[in-house]
Write a structure and sequence with these properties.
Blueprint: E1 29-33, H1 49-59, E2 63-68, H2 71-83, E3 87-92, H3 98-111, E4 119-121, H4 136-160, E5 166-170, H5 183-203, E6 209-215, H6 221-226, H7 247-258, E7 269-272
Parallel strand pairs: 1-2, 1-4, 2-3, 4-5, 5-6, 6-7
């Protein structure tokens, strides 16, 4: 049987967001930065990574602060959590504004009544192809969102999170291999690895662990936007499992790092990509 004849690996209940919670985050208070989601086609959009993380963490027993520059989208995530019986609050914040980052932590901590013991930075934007496909203002904008915002979150988080808390940065396999032509995006996402290492070293004094998840091709509104001009993006012939990931599969990977199951894991990188970065 050839690679193209292989059937896609069927999704599990976890892949579809249908598995029950197991109490893996009971009593936790987690801030997800980028917990709303973009809209590509409102009629057909699947769930995005950030929203899936928020819903999963709540299902696993955590109270969740959903932060996003788009407050309405954050509030939609909160509504879905509450409809499922979970607890969540929305916070509006622009990751490129330092004052917003400080206020975000203060509001999230107050909203969850007593502090924070988990942080996810799930924010990213892209634009321009090739080394001549963008101007310097666009380069700076992409870096401000993808990297500077992550740095501000780590800096504030290391000082404000409870001892022993996890921080998870969301990168991309575009940081690990060439091919996307999105130079600013790839470079800014690759730099998260250095930020992770420095933050993990600083956080170790208080038992704070910092890890990075590298999603591959994921069927999300953002992924559909990125692939709008690339019809072959979602075909899956070059993926070992023959299909793109779901946002729930990314969320479950972050769940390991957010839970106490990873208390001795820090400064590590996990690609969730059907082997695309390693095969």
């Amino acid at each position: 049987m050839t690679q193209t004849e292989l059937k896609p690996r069927p999704p599990s209940a976890e892949s579809l967001g249908q598995a029950p919670g197991r109490g893996r985050l009971a009593g936790r208070r987690i801030l997800v930065v980028g917990g709303g989601q973009r809209v590509f086609d409102a009629a057909t959009d699947p769930i995005g990574n950030g929203r899936a993380m928020c819903l999963l963490y709540a299902r696993e027993g955590a109270k969740v602060a959903v932060a996003d520059a788009n407050l309405a989208s954050a509030e939609q995530t909160v509504a879905l959590i509450r409809e499922a019986g979970g607890q969540a609050e929305a916070v509006e914040a622009d990751v490129t504004v330092e004052a917003d980052m400080v206020r975000m932590f203060e509001e999230a901590s107050a909203a969850l009544r007593g502090g924070l013991d988990g942080l996810v930075y799930n924010v990213g934007t892209f634009g321009g192809t090739g080394l001549r496909g963008f101007d310097l203002e666009e380069w700076d904008r992409i870096f401000a969102i993808n990297l500077r915002g992550a740095m501000l979150c780590c800096r504030e988080g290391l000082e404000r999170l409870e001892a022993g808390s996890p921080i998870v940065l969301i990168s991309s396999i575009a940081a690990l291999r060439a091919g996307s032509q999105l130079v600013a995006y790839d470079t800014s996402k690759a730099a998260l690895a250095a930020l992770m290492r420095h933050s993990a070293l600083a956080g170790g004094k208080r038992g704070i662990r910092v890890n990075t998840v590298y999603p591959g091709l994921v069927d999300t509104p953002n992924g559909r936007t990125a692939g709008a001009g690339r019809p072959s993006r979602g075909k899956g012939e070059h993926l070992a499992f023959g299909r793109q990931a779901t946002a729930w599969e990314i969320a479950y990977a972050t769940l390991f790092f957010m839970s106490d199951e990873s208390v001795y894991v820090t400064s590590q990188q996990l690609a969730v990509d059907s082997g695309a970065s390693g095969l």
